[in-house]
């Protein structure tokens, strides 16, 4: 797999996707915001352009067009639209591309609490994704714990991004992308099955935010520096 | 509930319980190590005494005797012995006492991996405990993520302890106990049902330790100082 040329942030008009798109645009990446509504995607891209400056290479498209135009697909959609969107996208996913899933199956998706997750049969939203993408497309779980408020604020993001995938090459690309966000350290968290833990940590952090009035993230302690280095 | 006089660390001859007992003995707490085998408990207490010095108030007893002698019961037993021990202890748990559960239902308990957890019907090991203790005994989930290696090493423990309980008073006592360990910050993590996330984080940290050759812990970022203060 070659280094991706463009990052499509699907569901990128939501706060999490917007924050990631902003950070990557700031880092000089080519970003395409995807949305159900092309106009909303273009508006979001315009907002980011105003914030980052004229150098930002960012555009907005309907999800399917954004997907077809990029090799690196980032899912930041509410869980209630997760499986449906993936089914729609499937024919547009290019061979050689990869999917990074930041989706968290919050119980809020079915009218429950954002401090609880739903049980997903496959184990996690990211594993559901792995089942729905075309054969051979690697799936990576990452960015669930880097909250929208942190991403959209100024300054470094005080959060480690744990990256889980069954494809070491795709994991590596996702970690490189994570470290483009100031403050973020990226850690290889092993296999995609561990995504279930990353997703649940988000529910815990949301609970801490409500309880303690903050914008929480996590840092892993006690690992050697090598754990944060890209190969 | 009055301030507990003695802490019984049940299963305290294992590395996690030993580490907690050591840290609390160092902090001047009255500690009773409990074990199936009184002799092993006494040996562990003796080792801690040698390490802490003559001032340490620590003894070793068979689990049931340790339980009956303390108001603060800390469970640090492998999950395969968790329910059985609680059934044995039930008649010895004194009214007015409380239970802190540090147990993690690792799949290793049934011959699987220590990087995976088992599904517990009640949601978590700590919630199983809540079902097995006498009515009115509060249960707190804590210390799952403060690894044995960190506790048994010299120096501060670089880990936050997230404390979950349905009983605010018991949560407060557990947080006070956590902050007696140098380096630890204690955070109110809300209801006992969140124990499932704390337990799974341990499996993630064990995976990181294996993958990156470290002794990992977690820190929560982005919360105000008040989140770490006891009321």
Give an overview of the whole structure:
The structure is a homodimer of 231-residue chains. Chain A has 231 residues and is an alpha/beta fold. Chain A has helices spanning 15-26, 38-52, 63-68, 82-89, 125-132, 148-152, 168-178, 195-212; strands spanning 7-10, 30-35, 57-62, 72-75, 98-101, 139-141, 160-165, 185-188, 217-221. Chain A has an 8-stranded mixed sheet, sandwiched between helices. In chain A, helix 1 (15-26) links the parallel strand 1 (7-10) and strand 2 (30-35). The radius of gyration of chain A is 16 Å and the shape is globular. The mean pLDDT of chain A is 96. Strand 9 (217-221) of chain A pairs antiparallel with strand 9 of chain B, so a sheet runs across the interface.
Summarize the structure.
With 231 residues, chain A is an alpha/beta fold. Chain A has helices spanning 15-26, 38-52, 63-68, 82-89, 125-132, 148-152, 168-178, 195-212; strands spanning 7-10, 30-35, 57-62, 72-75, 98-101, 139-141, 160-165, 185-188, 217-221.
């Amino acid at each position: 797999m070659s280094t991706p040329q463009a990052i499509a942030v699907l569901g990128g008009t939501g706060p999490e996707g917007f924050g990631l798109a902003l950070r990557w645009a700031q880092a000089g990446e080519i970003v395409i915001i995807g949305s159900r509504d092309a106009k909303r995607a273009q508006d979001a891209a315009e907002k980011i352009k105003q914030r980052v400056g004229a150098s930002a290479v960012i555009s907005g498209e309907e999800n399917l067009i954004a997907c077809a135009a990029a090799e690196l697909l980032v899912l930041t959609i509410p869980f209630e639209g997760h499986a449906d969107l993936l089914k729609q996208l499937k024919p547009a996913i290019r061979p050689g591309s990869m999917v990074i899933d930041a989706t968290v199956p919050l119980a809020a998706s079915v009218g429950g609490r954002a401090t609880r997750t739903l049980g997903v049969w496959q184990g996690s939203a990211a594993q559901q994704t792995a089942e729905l993408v075309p054969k051979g497309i690697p799936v990576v779980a990452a960015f669930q714990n880097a909250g929208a408020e942190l991403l959209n604020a100024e300054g470094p993001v005080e959060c480690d991004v744990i990256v889980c995938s069954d494809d070491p090459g795709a994991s590596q690309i996702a970690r490189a992308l994570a470290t483009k966000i100031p403050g973020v350290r990226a850690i290889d968290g092993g296999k995609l099955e561990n995504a279930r833990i990353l997703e649940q940590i988000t529910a815990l952090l949301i609970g801490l935010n409500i309880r303690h009035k903050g914008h929480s993230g996590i840092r892993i302690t006690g690992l050697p520096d090598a754990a944060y280095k890209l190969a």
